[in-house]
Amino acid sequence: MVPAPAWTLLPDLAERLRAAITALPEAAISELPGAAGELDRFVARPESPR
């Protein structure tokens, strides 16, 4: 989890992270135990938490 102040300091952080995550090959994500669901939930968020 990214601390709330980071979202304020880096307002485009969530967008950049979503872009990086969606660019990962499916094989890379499937090798992360338990992370696939967390990454899916993060990417599905409409905007960064504040």
Largest sheet composition: none
Helix content: 55-70%
Strand content: under 5%
The SSE order reads: HHHH
Ends apart, CA distance between termini: 12 Å
Tally of individual helices: 4
Low-confidence stretches: none
* Broad shape: elongated
Helices and strands: which structural class?
mainly alpha
What's the alpha carbon Rg, rounded to whole Å?
12 Å
| Extended strand count | 0
Averaged pLDDT: 80
List the topology elements:
Layout: H1 4-9, H2 13-23, H3 26-30, H4 35-44
Describe, in short, the structure shown.
With 50 residues, this protein is mainly alpha-helical. It is built from four helices and no strands. 64% of the residues lie in helices and 0% in strands.
